[in-house]
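Supplementary notes for students who missed Thursday's class. We covered one full example, reproduced here. Read the sequence, then the structure, then the short commentary at the end.
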Amino acid sequence: MKQEKKYLKQFTKNLYYTAHPQVGEFLETIDKKLWKKTNHNPKVYAKKLKAKRIRKMSIKQKNTLSDLVKEYHQYHNILKPSGPYTAYFCMEYGLHESIPIYSGGLGVLAGDHFKQAADMNLPFIAIGLFYRHGYFQQKKDESVGQREKYPKVNPKKLPFKRVKQNGKKLVLPIPIENRTVYAQVWEGKLRHNSIFLLDTDLKKNKKEDRELTATLYGGDSKYRIAQELILGVGGILLLEKLNYKISKVHLNEGHAGFTFLPRVQKLLDKGMSFEDAILQIRRETLFTTHTPVPAGNEVFEDSLLRIMLKPYFTTLDKNKFFALGKIQPDDPGFGMTVFALKTSGNANAVSKLHGEVARQMWHGIWPQKSLDEVPITHITNGIHLKSWVAPEFRKLYKNLLGENWHQPEKEATEKLLTLNLSEIDLAHQVAKKRLATYIARHTNLSKKDLNKALLIGFARRFATYKRATLLFLNEKKLQEILEHAPFPVIFVFAGKAHPADKPGKEFIRKIIEKANDKFWSNHIVFLENYDMNLGRILTQGADVWMNNPRRPHEASGTSGMKAAVNGVLNFSILDGWWPEIYSLENGYAIGTDKNFNSQQEQDEFDANDLYEKLQHQVIEDAKEENREKRLQKMRSSIASCLPEFNTYRMLKEYIKFYSVSAK
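Structure (token representation):
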């Protein structure tokens, strides 16, 4: 038993389990209830696991554990990259459901980026904030849509360690407004790469300053500016303290723009002019924008920034600084996206269509250039395949493509087109049963009925542009389609609205209302507290994945990629990533790429097209007599999407982009 305990302890020391789901899948076999109770946290699980459970492990389980430990050591048995490093800054990281410091796609993308960099053994450091109350837990509520709960998150119960320097715990002094705020730093390791999370919950801080890293995307503008100063200024200070040699600073969204402040200060102190300092910083900085919705790009009041950034204006020219956050001199506020674009030498959007939208949105920064010359390119997002592919499909891909199936080249497409249709069907049915079991546990629907139904998934942030309620624009038409379908059709919804987003909460309330209605309760499900675990279950087990944002407001849409590589067919507006790969052979398209005179006109057109495609394509293909056609479509979806929409391809493109000279 000592050997088994020693082996289990291996998985509590670092972030390996977040990138290798087979660890969690195994731990669940020892004590399923405890695994669920500990929110899939190996460190807490191993501490609470009773000795009798370990003693009762079968020979097969012991052999599996031994194999997992061998894989663990093989993964780590590689020389540390020599550097220089890319320093990646983001407000949130979706590493795993047990580490609730993420809210949605931006964070999950950042987490996948970090994992892939470790898999490729790239010199890469991630910097963020440790939120002591994370992002909220959601409880559905019939009257207001959702209630929010903020449980305490203890870093000591997670695979993080306090960063020390010369034997002492490192504390970073960060000037904010008229005071100094102090931040401690937590480090998590994956292979040789570190993620550093700054945390102001220190006794030497004032009470209000201890709360600055309490919640993700909470508080007012003053709170947000303080958080972004901790991330940007504190992150650069940390790199200097730890003597990292940095080749590129990668800003994942405008929240990280304040990395500029300590860097420009250092160059000015050396006697460099402001203009030359800007050029130097631009050569070292890459910016990724994720927000094609104008309202989603942060703008702060000049007067508030003057107060909050007061310590930085001793040598920094205020007028020159504020000009960096404006397109026109008389713009009413300081735009963080504008600031990041002006202080970064290279910038990219996260899909081809988003690149076109971003160049149009920010053309005013470069009025002398034509639209095509605006220096914003695109690198389409991808997903970390090891984290998101179901175990059944993981096995199929490994058998077909080999050990490195998760780092596929484009040539893999031809091999994937040889996948056996029956094996695809069997793998999908197992994943669907997991989803059916989860839904049955949280609703009045039976597993038997769910397994017979066509399950259409819709899970994402409940931002209004994502139009979660578009499905109900013509309830009479939808009801008619569902009543005449030859099998039950069930729409499975999940997602959170930002606590301050009342329209988003109203969308949730309407869906919950439908789920409680006599007729609609057989066709509508809302699953509360959407997180990465539920995201895996849904994208692996649904039959169809629906996405209907108001085009062109979806920057990328990685949930659809996760569905596609699990053989789940996309049923989506031609927005974000989907236009880059869609064909009649691999999924379904909703709507058109034409422009509309009003949102109402666009919504009506898209809803009518959704009903048409739902009835005559999605439901039609799901009929038993069309089974082979549907399976061929699933295989085509896998073959076209898996080699292309992954973080391995994405990081190879970023590596090339990092080496491009700043423009």
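Commentary. The mean pLDDT is 96. The longest helix spans residues 599-621. If anything here is unclear, bring it to office hours.
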